[in-house]
Structure formats: C-alpha cells, structure tokens
Amino acid sequence: MTYGYEKSLNEKIKEEVTDYWTSRAESFNELKIQELNSDMRGRWLNELLKYLPDRKGLKILDVGTGTGFFCFLLAAEGHDLTGIDLTEKMILEAEKSSATLEIPAKFYVMDAENPDFEDNSFDAIVTRNVAWTLPDLKRAYEKWYSLLKNDGVLINFDGDYTREKEQQKLLENHAHAKITQVQWSAYERLKTELCPISNPRPDWDVQLLKSAGFKEIILDQQVGDRIYSEINQFYNPTPIFAIAARK
C-alpha cells in the first residue's frame, strides 16, 4: 500500500517537473546560449576539468541536460556527448542549438532516474541542478554508477534547493525576472513536495554515493563562490556544491 502511494507521488512530481520546464524551455535556452558566450563558459569548464580524465574523446553523459549547456561546452573540447532530459521541449531546443552552433551531440528524452543505456557505457556523467528534483535520488545514483565504466567519474553540481532561504533581490535583467507568477508557484509547490522525501544535502549525497558503490568522493562547497563571483544575470543566490565520485 505504501509503495503504491510513493509511486504515484513520484510520478506526480515528474509530471510537475516536466510541465514547469516545458513552460520555460525557450527562454531558458536563450539564457544558456548567452551563458555559453560569456565568462561563465570558462568558469564552468575549469570546474569540470578538475575531475574529468585528462584525455580527448571521452564518452560523457549529461543527465538533465536541459537545452544542452554542458553538452556544447564539453563537445567543443573534443568529447563525445550524449544529453538526456525528461522534458521533450528542452530536448527539441537542445537539438536546434546543436545545429545552430554546429556542435554535435546526441539528445534523448529519458528519465534521469533510469537512463536507457547499457551498463559500463560512459567515461563520465555530468549533471547540474538536476538531482534535487529527483524523487528517488538513491535509485538515480545506483543507476548512474552502473552506467559508468570502471574508474569512470560522476560530477554533480547542485544545491539543497528544497531548503533554500528566501531569495535576495536580484538585478532587473536577471534570468528569474522573466519567470511568471504561475511558474514561481509551480517551483515552490515542487520544493514543498520534495523536501519531506529528501534529507539535508550534500551530506545525504555522500551517504547515497557510498551506498551505491562509489569511491574517492570529493565534496566542494565553495564552487559557487568561484562561479558566481559577482551578481549578474546568471547569478545563483542559492549556495551550490560540487561532488565528484569515482566508480
């Protein structure tokens, strides 16, 4: 009986996530293209290169790719990128940007908790601001572990968004200025639903990663200070962390 309730709740959350990002896909893509052409590109790349193996041609999976920011960033460095997202509209925007930017990457509509790939397929998995939206994070980490090759690495940038403090006033040109009241309400509802079924992060992530079998877990809670060193249109007021774990 309990399992049935949890399953329906998980499905409800995923539907809400899909609806929310469908409504934001086009404006979000515009923002990511601007970010890709700004100083933020180098900042994100520097953080990723700290953990990625030092060779070209890595097979990398971007989980919750959105409109493809990490895919384009890393494909331009000579890697083989695959991006997945639960929201079809996001994937369509990513495919259009791939053609416009002339940066090849493969994109699929898939559930981040259960990507449909063979085990031991990827040298690295990257993800940004996605794990907090997953109703079964334990399952996701276990699945991602199985998708990595031996000695492969997971790199997760995220924040404890369900427990974030009241946001400070941001610049008028900030990305969030375009979010409608309906979208804000959907975001707050999502946090309310996810908070009771999660634990404080990133401590919880470390526990789940160890349980999934990961080793050499590195936690960096100052990454946000480096990436968001000034308040601009890309600024994230919620503290973020980076967590890298090796199979």
TrEMBL record:
The keyword Thylakoid is annotated on this UniProt entry: no
Cross-referenced InterPro entries: Methyltranfer_dom, SAM-dependent_MTases_sf
Residues spanning the membrane: none
SUPFAM superfamilies: S-adenosyl-L-methionine-dependent methyltransferases
Protein name in UniProt: Class I SAM-dependent methyltransferase
Domain annotation Methyltransferase: ranges: 55-176
A Pfam short name: Methyltransf_31
Top-level EC class: transferase
MF-aspect GO terms: methyltransferase activity
Lineage, broadest ranks: Bacteria, Bacillati, Bacillota, Clostridia, Eubacteriales
Keyword Transmembrane helix: no
Keywords: Methyltransferase, Transferase
E.C. number(s) listed in UniProt: 2.1.-.-
Species per Swiss-Prot/TrEMBL record: Clostridium boliviensis
GO biological process: methylation
Superkingdom of origin organism: Bacteria
